[in-house]
Amino acid sequence: MQAAQYIGNKQFSIIETSPIPPKDDEVRINVGFVGICGTDMHIYHGVMDARVNPPHTIGHEISGTVAEVGKNVSGFSVGERVVVRPLDYCGDCPACHAGHSHVCHNLKFMGIDTPGAFQNSWTVKARTLHKLPANVDLQQGALIEPLAVACHDISRARVTAGEHVVVLGGGPIGQLVALVAKSLGAHVLISEPNENRRQFAAQYGIDTINPITDDIAEFVKQWSDQKGADAVFEVSGVQPAVDAMVQVAAVRGRICMVAIHSQKPQVDLFQFFWKELELLGARVYEHADFEMAVDLVASGKVDLKPFITSISKLSDIGDAFASMDNNPIGMKALVSCEQQ
Ligand SMILES: [Zn+2]
Ligand SMILES: [Zn+2]
Fold first, then answer.
1. What is the pLDDT of residues 85-103, one digit of tens each?
2. How far is the CA of 180 from the centre of ligand 2 (A)?
3. pLDDT tens-digit profile of 26-71?
4. Averaged over 74-92, what is the pLDDT?
5. Considering the domain 148-281 in this protein, what is its CATH number?
6. Which residues form the Enoyl reductase (ER) domain (predicted)?
7. Residue 328: its pLDDT value, please?
8. Mean pLDDT (whole number) for 183-191
9. Is 337 left (phi over 0), alpha (psi -120 to 50) or beta?
């Protein structure tokens, strides 16, 4: 079998290696497709070398087929199609004991802190698996992980039917947040400067605004019949969006911080007093978010196919990363990791 290793400085090498037999509580997966995430792009650019310690196999947005099961594993059998919730938690810290293992004090993110999925075969703990129903193919399966991120954001912000939801930033996660909100019956607006991304949202019937040329505060007022947004998602990571998020929020609006800001943004705390706003953090996902993501795709409420910008072979993984660099508005590049 083959594995791709990130070796630093925007380079990958393909190595010949052997499948790892599963331990008692593990499952070995024949990898189907793996998506390239924004985090993978950060790794590729070398900014996370201290954490990933190259050479290292990365990749965490994966679908595949169960190939071997450890002897204590129940509920999964060879041939079943699955996705992986790539969180390795300790099970014995205050966060884990409180039922928040996704923000475990000792959390290891699989594919960053431990070996990942850009290889023909990946061996993982059975507790990380979720089943794919027959009508969800492996290509869409590779997008369940980012969709689960969006499901977690929506659940943190407690979005319900009929509410007005503003998403600041129309990259892959922003678009998915908007789609999950829409699937729940919310009215959704994406604020995004890039025209292609606005068109991408429009094909799903989502309202859009260009925050560079339009006054977003004024627009949201009109759009929401003077009320403002019940829930706001900051998915852009830029200061103007942090300014906008408090302006567009309704009285008692919930603001969910999704983006990872590289610098500490300035937040207008006065508006938190004035409108009794609520600010919510959101990090990765829980078991229920993955189940919700699978259900949304299986039921046809969210169609992930338009997100797939390209599909490359594992041997061409370097080109796949380079093409995301050259086409930063592309939504999702997949790498086919099935053994040739
Ligand atoms: Zn990701
Ligand atoms: Zn823990």
1. 999 999 999 999 999 999 9
2. 29
3. 999 999 999 999 999 999 999 999 999 999 999 999 999 999 999 9
4. 98
5. 3.40.50.720
6. 8-335
7. 72
8. 98
9. alpha
Q: Which part of the chain has CATH 3.40.50.720?
A: 148-281
Band of the pLDDT at 181, cuts 50, 70, 90?
very high
Taking the CA of 84 as reference, the closest ligand is: 1
- Distance (angstroms) between ligand 2 centre and the Cα of 88 equals 9
Distance 170 CA to ligand 2 centre (A): 33
Tens of pLDDT along 312-339?
999 999 999 999 988 877 899 999 999 8
For ligand 1, the distance from its centroid to the CA atom of residue 38, given in whole angstroms, is 6
Nearest-ligand number for the alpha carbon of 91? 2
Task: Among the bound ligands, name the one nearest to the CA of residue 95.
Answer: 2
Distance CA 72, CA 201 (A): 45
Assess if CATH 3.40.50.410 describes domain 2-143+304-336: no
Task: Give the catalytic positions in this structure.
Answer: 39, 42
Domain with CATH 3.90.180.10 in the chain: 2-143+304-336
